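Lab meeting, item 3. Inverse folding demo.
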C-alpha cells in the first residue's frame, strides 16, 4: 500500500478521497492513485478498510467503498490480513458499535462476517470481549446479531462467556459486567 493511501486511511482524511474521486482532471487523479492502488495491502496484509477500521474512521470507509463495485466492496470488507482478521475484527476493539454495525450492513448477509474466525479462531465477538470491557457496546451488538457465536470456542477452547469472565478484571464496571453476563447467559439458555 502506498504511504499516502495508508496515511489517509489511518488519519481518516476524507479529503484525500474527495480530491481523488472528484478531481477536475479525472485522468490526472487516476494516474496518481488508481483503484488498484486503493486495493493495495500493508506489510501485515491490511487493506484500506482494515486500516481505517482499526483507527475508527467510519466516514473514510463509507467514502472509500463508494469507489468500488459491490463485488469489490465485499472483497475489501471480508478480506483477511496475516492474522486472519477482517476489518470487523479490528472494529470490534472500538468502544462504540457504529463501525461494526456499518461493516456488517455493507456486507452481504450471506458472508456471515460476524461469524468469521481469524487464525486463532476468534470471532469479532471474542475480540470485543478480550478488550477488557472497552468494547461492551460492540459485544452486545454482535451477540444480538448472531447469538450462535456465543458457543464458538477459539483455539484456546475459550467461548465468549469465558472471555467475558476472564477479561472482567480489566476494569469493566459492575453494571456493564452484569449487563454482558446477563446477555450471554440469556443467549446460551435460548440455544
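The presenter then showed the designed sequence:
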Amino acid at each position: 500500500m502506498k504511504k499516502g493511501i495508508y496515511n489517509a486511511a489511518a488519519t481518516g482524511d476524507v479529503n484525500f478521497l474527495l480530491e481523488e474521486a472528484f478531481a477536475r482532471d479525472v485522468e490526472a487523479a487516476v494516474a496518481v492513485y488508481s483503484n488498484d492502488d486503493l486495493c493495495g495491502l500493508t506489510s501485515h496484509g491490511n487493506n484500506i478498510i482494515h486500516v481505517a477500521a482499526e483507527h475508527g474512521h467510519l466516514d473514510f470507509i463509507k467514502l472509500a467503498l463508494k469507489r468500488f463495485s459491490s463485488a469489490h466492496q465485499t472483497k475489501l470488507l471480508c478480506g483477511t490480513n496475516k492474522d486472519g482478521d477482517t476489518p470487523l475484527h479490528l472494529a470490534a476493539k472500538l468502544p462504540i458499535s457504529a463501525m461494526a454495525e456499518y461493516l456488517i450492513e455493507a456486507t452481504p448477509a450471506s458472508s456471515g462476517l460476524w461469524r468469521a474466525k481469524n487464525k486463532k479462531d476468534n470471532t469479532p465477538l471474542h475480540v470485543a470481549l478480550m478488550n477488557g470491557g472497552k468494547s461492551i457496546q460492540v459485544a452486545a451488538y454482535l451477540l444480538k446479531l448472531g447469538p450462535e457465536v456465543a458457543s464458538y470456542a477459539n483455539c484456546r477452547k475459550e467461548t465468549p462467556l469465558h472471555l467475558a469472565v476472564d477479561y472482567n478484571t480489566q476494569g469493566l464496571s459492575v453494571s456493564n459486567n452484569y449487563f454482558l453476563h446477563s446477555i450471554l447467559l440469556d443467549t446460551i439458555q435460548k440455544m
